[in-house]
Amino acid sequence: MTCNILFHHRDRERLSLIHRWLAVCCIPLTLCLCASVFTLTSCIDSEERPNTPSGNFEMLWSIIDEHYCFFDYKQHEYGLDWQEVYNKYKVRISDKMNSAQLFEVCCDMLAELRDGHVNLSNAMDYGRYWSWHEAFPKNFSDTLERRYMGTDYRISSGLQFRVLDDNIGYLRCESFSVPIGEGNLDEALSYLALCRGLIIDIRNNTGGDLTTAELLAGRFVHQKTLVGYMQHKTGSGHNDFSSLEPQYLEPSSNIRWHKGVCVLTNRSVFSAANSFAVWMHELPNVRLVGDHTGGGSGMPFNNSLPNGWNVRFSACPMYDARKQQTEFGIAPDVVAALTDEAVAQSIDPIIEKAREILTN
């Protein structure tokens, strides 16, 4: 998920939402509207601090303290106390330390948030928290993917697809960072139209453009469907949020799929791909198969420190249709996993489980 915000389909509604968002977030018009009306990048004002190690540390902690959106949720889940985090890392800061040492302390502090959307970056490194997928089985194999895809599969922009030998369609979407147009989707679904079911494999899809995920999901919904909620920060307090705003998935006016669908997931499904899984989970003809997703449900925003380092953080929480957090991902409908024995036999149990579901 890039620093984009998902708007509704009419331009007037999009612009209205932009204006309301600016109002409730109390953010000045230093915001940069990108070429597309779908994107909104923030430059949040904060109190200026001196360009010293302590000044940069204080500003980083304050930016997160005032604008991060998951404090209450993570306090409940694992006891996060941001003030205690400050006390823990403040003692490691000295104005005599060098940039590399400061970067290490700051990244260690941000890792306490356990959020893949929280990053600190500079010219020498990119601070990240990747334990949301590194600490779990991969449940994906490039070798097995090549075995199922063969060499004669079709490619349409960010989609790869073919018909498996039991007349089940297989569509691989590796990333939502690659643009997928209406024409790409029309061609793919037309080619797979005679299949008795469809597998959409988004394993290892770590996100990208939320509007691309919405475009794909719109091909599987047949009426306006509530798929979740969103909130925005309205002040600097940890609990200063707008009311829950419903998010709807609109059916595409182009070719739509009416048969059964299995969406394959693993722990590396994150951000916009996690949102796609959450939306598809609301549809009656869809089953999620595989492993728990990685999460990443907060809309990320950017700010900078006095020394020019960039900090990204989750600022707008998103929920599922039952108003439940999906920041730490969602469970599949049907659990399946790769095993050493299956891999040795060139079998992907997650794909095979989906084929079984769609066949029966």
How would you characterize this protein structure?
There is one protein chain. By secondary structure, the protein is of the alpha/beta class. Helices cover 32% and strands 19% of the residues. The chain is built from twelve helices and 15 strands. A seven-stranded mixed β-sheet has the order 5-6-7-8-11-12-15, sandwiched between helices. Strands 3, 4, 9, 10, 13 and 14 form a six-stranded antiparallel β-sheet that branches. It has a two-stranded antiparallel ribbon with strand order 1-2. Helix 9 (210-217) packs parallel to helix 10 (272-280). The chain is elongated.
Short structural summary:
By secondary structure, the chain is of the alpha/beta class. It has helices at residues 11-25, 53-67, 71-78, 82-90, 99-111, 131-134, 142-149, 182-191, 210-217, 272-280, 340-344, 349-359, and strands spanning 32-33, 40-41, 119-121, 126-127, 154-156, 159-163, 168-173, 197-201, 225-230, 245-249, 260-265, 286-290, 298-304, 310-320, 334-335. The longest helix is centred in the first third of the chain and has 15 residues, at 11-25.
Give a topology summary.
Elements: H1 11-25, E1 32-33, E2 40-41, H2 53-67, H3 71-78, H4 82-90, H5 99-111, E3 119-121, E4 126-127, H6 131-134, H7 142-149, E5 154-156, E6 159-163, E7 168-173, H8 182-191, E8 197-201, H9 210-217, E9 225-230, E10 245-249, E11 260-265, H10 272-280, E12 286-290, E13 298-304, E14 310-320, E15 334-335, H11 340-344, H12 349-359
Parallel strand pairs: 7-8, 8-11, 11-12, 12-15
Antiparallel strand pairs: 1-2, 3-4, 3-14, 5-6, 6-7, 9-10, 9-14, 13-14
